[in-house]
Design brief:
The complex is a heterodimer of chains A (134) and B (266). Helices cover 46% and strands 18% of the residues of chain A. Chain A contains five helices and five strands, in the order βαβαβαβαβα. The radius of gyration of chain A is 13 Å and the shape is globular. The chains are: A alpha/beta (134), B alpha/beta (266).
């Protein structure tokens, strides 16, 4: 189960998404939420707070550094490679979903989404990780 | 439990014959008896080569009846020759409410955008939306009542274009109030990008469907936001399909313009 003392890192260039994800997470008792507006900004936050981040929820299409490039960096760096990672994106193409999972995303949420969708995907992600590491 | 009305329209296709004359018109009228007019009624002209004048009046009356019942009339696969018959008879005005040609900008192209708009507004904002009759906007013509718009460039293997979602300030604020769960009284920097993100979701859903079913190869693109009091959005190349929606948060519309990569309007 998610350690609620840890933070969730939300990355999206659109403030609307950051706000609604944050609101949903706080309602779900995830009190510590950190926001970033692109992959580069998120990487700097992650590097400086690697022990504090318990979950990453990231958009795919962003300026400066995209979500997939950010995920590659996370998964190829020793200190960050095991941080749970969920894509939250409007890209419903199956090829893209497949690519995200191949590169190492743990789960995928398609926009539009409800708070219930978000909660289910987070639970599903932790169950998957638990089963994998058991 | 929500008491909001379900606004999604069922698509009912009526295949028209090769020649529309008095005899086939009777057949057409009797087929209409069994159709519920409060839906999206699609007249399929793919087989039609010739149309008698009496049909024009029927189309006009049908459109009126459908709109009174809360439905939408569209046509598809109409050849240029048949379209010219409407023009020659001086009743091209009837086609303002009909999708009039059989190329890219027909109902099969725009339907995924319509479905995606209804879905995004419902899931993300709990707003019910219902499409009104689509209209064609000429090059450089402006559609009134826009205070904020999200715009995305469409790039595919064979065509380019733009899609825009256009809101009045009142509609935009009501939709944002629904999204954020608190009343929004003005368009602040905190909510302004919602115009782009709503469009991004609509575009993402429609793009996936069109790439899957039509293999268009539409590419990913980032939205931009245009804002100002009573904005005018005008596309320079050619006709633009305007899809007006009535929603539980007020009216809004989508504008789609597509041209082939050679620059010719399609």
């Amino acid at each position: 189960m998610f350690d609620t003392k840890k933070s969730v890192l939300i990355i999206d260039d659109m403030m609307m998404i950051r706000k609604i994800v944050k609101k949903s997470l706080v309602e779900l008792d995830y009190k510590n939420v950190i926001e970033a507006s692109n992959g580069q900004e998120a990487w700097e936050i992650l590097e400086a707070n690697v022990d504090r981040i318990g979950l990453i929820v990231s958009d795919w299409n962003m300026p400066v550094m995209t979500g997939i490039d950010f995920l590659r960096k996370v998964r190829t760096t020793e200190t960050t490679k095991n941080v749970p990672f969920i894509f939250l994106t409007a890209e419903a193409d199956m090829a893209q979903v497949k690519l995200g999972l191949e590169v190492g995303a743990d789960n995928y949420i398609l926009k539009p989404f409800s708070p219930n969708d978000l909660m289910k995907k987070i639970e599903q992600t932790y169950n998957k990780i638990k089963a994998r590491t058991a | 439990m929500s008491t909001a009305k379900n606004f999604s329209l069922k698509r009912i296709v009526i295949d028209l014959p090769n020649v529309i004359n008095d005899e086939t018109m009777n057949q057409f009228q009797s087929e209409l008896q069994s159709v519920q007019l409060g839906n999206q009624i699609v007249l399929n002209f793919s087989q039609t080569k010739k149309v008698e004048k009496s049909f024009f009046l029927s189309v006009y009356n049908l459109r009126k009846q459908i709109e009174q019942n809360g439905g939408v009339l569209v046509s598809e696969h109409m050849s240029l020759a048949v379209k010219n018959l409407f023009i020659d008879a001086g009743v091209i005005g009837f086609l303002n409410h009909v999708i009039a040609d059989d190329k890219l900008l027909d109902v099969k192209f725009v339907q995924p955008f319509i479905d995606s708009t209804i879905n995004v507004l419902k899931v993300q904002a709990n707003v019910d939306a219902r499409m009104q009759s689509p209209v064609l906007k000429k090059a450089n013509e402006e559609f009134p009542g826009i205070d904020i718009a999200g715009v995305i460039s469409i790039v595919s293997d064979s065509f380019v274009g733009t899609i825009a979602i256009c809101f009045s300030e009142a509609t935009f604020l009501k939709i944002c109030s629904q999204i954020f769960g608190e009343e929004q009284k003005e368009i602040t920097s905190e909510i302004v990008d919602s115009a782009g993100e709503i469009l991004n979701m609509i575009f993402g859903g429609a793009k996936a469907e069109l790439n899957k079913t039509k293999k268009y190869g539409i590419q990913t693109a980032l939205p931009t936001i245009v804002r100002g009091k009573s904005l005018g959005l005008s596309q320079s190349v050619g006709p633009t399909m305007v899809l007006p929606f009535e929603t539980s948060a007020g009216p809004l519309h989508i504008e789609i313009e597509i041209v082939s990569k050679g620059g010719k309007n399609v």
